[in-house]
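If you are new to this repository, start here. Below is one unmodified record pulled from the training split, so you can see the exact layout before writing a loader.
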Amino acid sequence: MVKMAVSKTKLFERAKRKTDFGLRDLIIKLKASNSEFWLNVASLLARPRRKAIKVNLEKINKEVKANDVVVVPGKVLGKGYLDKPITLACLAISQKARKEVEKNSKLIGIAELYQQNKEGKGIKLIK
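And here is the target side for that same chain:
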């Protein structure tokens, strides 16, 4: 696990500048967690828009095994395919990627996954 690059105070300051209230609330909720995994996810979500994470399905397919739980703290794009059943939590997803994921996998929000697994154990972070 990579150490969080931003302090909790700096993370809160970055979250306050976000204009998307849902994203702002999610960052603050994850910041309150004691889990290093969720603090790292919050740090990645609080980045400036120009450094936003965009991941294609082909990269996800390459890095996961069947039945993995995966978090993408950014947008999932539709280039490639997904041939393994996984549980995917992401901030946003393109229409093409959504159709491909919903064929044989489960798609949930990051906040919902946080409620299910507050320790962040057994979750893969793809960025």
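Two things worth knowing about this chain: The beta strands are 53-56, 69-77, 87-93, 106-109, 123-125. The first strand starts at residue 53 and ends at 56.
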